[in-house]
Write a structure and sequence with these properties.
The protein has 7 helices and no strands. The protein is an all-alpha fold and 235 residues long. The protein has one domain. The longest helix is centred in the middle third of the chain and has 38 residues, at 119-156.
Amino acid sequence: MIVSLLAECALFLLTLQLFNGWTAGVVGLEIGSIDPQLLFQAKLIELPLALAMVWLLLRLRRERSVDIGLRLSSQGAGPDLRFGAFMAIPLLVLATAAGLLARLVVNAPEDSVFRVADWSSYGWLLATGWVAGGFLEEIQFRGYLFRRLEQLMERFAPGGRLNRSRALILASAVFGLLHLYQGPVAVVSAMAAAAGLQFVFLKSGRRLLPCMVCHGLFDTVQISLLFATQEAVPV
């Protein structure tokens, strides 16, 4: 069981990277100079592929989408929407503080691979933030990957009190490392954001809607700050 869970996690992460590379190639996206419109197009192509992969992996273990948090509370969507929106500010503070601390430690310049030169770029990045970040990444990481890592920790240490915490740390570390192309500061900031979003997931009763709202608002604020502070750079 341990080997199969490890293999499944590895396959999942490898396939994600293959999807990213393939869709970027399809639309002509260059990682070093990210075009917001092409990025959105790539994520739109990736979306059904990634969802199909998660569905297939769940079916292989006879699990359902509700098992990874795709369900509403008994009171409907309202409480989840409000909780997700409320937690966006603490998440911003956490990720910003982690990024500032990392910048001091590694003495890295403040920079971004994203260029928000005009309203069009701003709109494309906002759409990407909600579709790829708020929706897809929450299903992939806070839902699916966290569940598998939690199961893996339970196999290593049955009944261990720290299994959930270990799974949270591992899932956050993986999410952060996938942002390595943005630099070490972004990795640390993404790890902190992932840990915060996983907390939202657990605090909400393991439902993904609050995480989706929180992540979407988080990306909206980040992109808006870039738009407000960056010099106009041709995309």
